[in-house]
Specification:
Length: 209
């Protein structure tokens, strides 16, 4: 496979055995975008922030799309495998525990995190999905996890990008495959709010402290 390395920022914690926040930006963001959220979500964690390898009109993304809300699913598969391959190599280089990754993704970043849940269901320790959409369809085989990892999802009640019914179905699918999903509907659109961050911080504290 012609996997490419990813641009990243890694900030190690004092405790080498700490969990790692894996930050994944939305379309047009980069590895700097989500860093300010890290201290609001958790303290004492390693922080790893990635930049997506795909470009859309000069804007970084984690996988290609065919239109608004229409994903290039073969590319979702490829880019998910590419990212996980990179994470495995980077964990050996930087010394973080691959089994203690907590993904935090917004929009496109939430969707690549969701693809990891579906294609590598045992990998992540948990995931925060802000404004997620189900990244893959037509996966006929179950993708159960035996770890029963917690997953936080928050959607916007007036989000013009994401169908609320589809988000509910996505949460049901993850729950049916063994994930412990906490869903929140925020009174906003596709933008990230302080309420999202505060709810997610409480969820991180409840599940990883």
């Amino acid at each position: 496979m012609d996997f490419q390395p990813m641009k990243y920022i890694y900030q190690p914690a004092a405790n080498k055995d700490a969990y790692t926040l894996l930050l994944l930006h939305g379309t047009g963001g980069d590895e700097q975008d989500m860093l300010p959220l890290a201290p609001e979500l958790a303290t004492g964690f390693h922080v790893l922030s990635l930049r997506g390898n795909v470009q859309e009109h000069g804007m970084p993304r984690f996988f290609r799309r065919l239109g608004m809300g229409v994903f290039d699913e073969p590319d979702v598969h490829f880019r998910t495998h590419e990212m996980v391959h990179f994470l495995k190599e980077l964990s050996a280089k930087e010394g973080f525990d691959l089994q203690k990754l907590v993904a935090v993704g917004y929009s496109n970043g939430a969707n690549i995190a969701g693809a990891v849940l579906m294609l590598y269901p045992e990998l992540l320790a948990g995931a925060v999905l802000f404004r997620p959409m189900q990244p893959l369809h037509g996966i006929e085989d179950p993708f159960e996890t035996s770890r029963q990892q917690p997953v936080f999802m928050s959607s916007g009640k007036t989000d013009g990008t994401v169908n609320p019914a589809a988000t509910a179905a996505y949460a049901t699918l993850l729950t049916a495959n063994g994930f412990r999903v906490s869903s929140h509907d925020i009174n906003t659109g596709h933008n990230l709010t302080q309420q999202d961050i505060d709810l997610a911080a409480g969820w991180v504290k409840e599940n990883f402290s």
